[in-house]
Amino acid sequence: MENDDRDVWAQVLRGDARAFGVIWDRHHIRVFRHLRSTGLDRADAEDLTAATFLELWRRRASTRFVDGSLLPWLIVTARNVARNASRSRRRYERLLSSLPAPEPATDPAERHEVDDRSADIRSALAAASRTDADLVSMTALEGFTVREAASALGLSESAAKMRLSRFRHRVRRLSETRPTPEGGT
Questions:
Q1: Which of 34-43, 57-66, 172-181 has the least mean pLDDT?
Q2: How far apart are CA 28 and CA 6, in angstroms?
Q3: Do 51 and 120 sit in the same domain of this protein?
Q4: Are residues 20 and 75 in the same domain?
Q5: Whole-angstrom Cα distance, residue 139 to residue 143?
Q6: CA distances in angstroms from 139 to 117, 157, 164, listed in the order given
Q7: 75-90 pLDDT, tens per residue?
Q8: Residue 33 · residue 22 · CB < 8 Å
Q9: Which residues, 6+ apart, have CB-to-CB distance to 26 below 8 Å?
Q10: Residue 109 has what pLDDT?
Q11: How far apart are CA 31 and CA 54, in angstroms?
Q12: CA torsion sign, 127 to 128 to 130 to 135?
């Protein structure tokens, strides 16, 4: 014969962690179904089922059995946990509605003026070969030395230096050919 909840609960109170799992296995689906029947969505019912069993653990010394079962106590506790959660949600919504509406925020990208030099570098990178773009990225952004980047890319150090020099000249040419804004120097 299977132990009733009182016998299993006595094991829980003696420190048997598996015994609590037995109680969970026996009753969590019924508690979940009860919470779902009150109109809660699946996620909320799952959360409140877990909260109900947390209450069971917290109040383990004062639980009540009906005909050897914890299920009635769990159902009543689940209803109370759900009511408390609903009350808490309503208080939170009242608080939010009492706060002033936030001022519209501007997009940080719009507040930051585009640096023409950065735009020139991006244009030069877009037009560069894959090897040149990798070389610039490795040396300028990743902090590799020219020798380390050249080695990683299968280039000689002198070839890498020449490619970087050509890249700098391309960026300068782009800056020189860009039209000057009206009233600018």
A1: 172-181
A2: 17
A3: no
A4: yes
A5: 5
A6: 18, 12, 9
A7: 999 999 999 999 999 9
A8: no
A9: 5, 71
A10: 62
A11: 13
A12: negative
Tell me the pLDDT of the chain averaged across its residues. 88
For residue range 35-56, what is the model confidence (pLDDT) as tens digits?
A: 999 899 999 999 999 999 999 9
Token pair in block for residue 104 = 């519209």
Based on the fold, state whether residues 11 and 94 are members of the same structural domain: yes
Q: What is the CATH number of the domain that holds 54?
A: 1.10.1740.10
Q: How many CA atoms lie within 13 A of 65 on its CB side?
A: 13
pTM: 0.54
pLDDT at 155 (0 to 100): 94
Tokens for 123? 């244009």
State in Å, rounded, how far the first CA of the chain is from the last one. Answer: 95
Residue 69: beta bridge partners?
66
- Alpha helices (H) along 38-141: 42-58, 71-98, 108-111, 116-127, 130-136
What is the Cα 141 distance to its own chain's centre? 27
Number of Cα atoms under 13 Å in the Cβ half of residue 45? 16
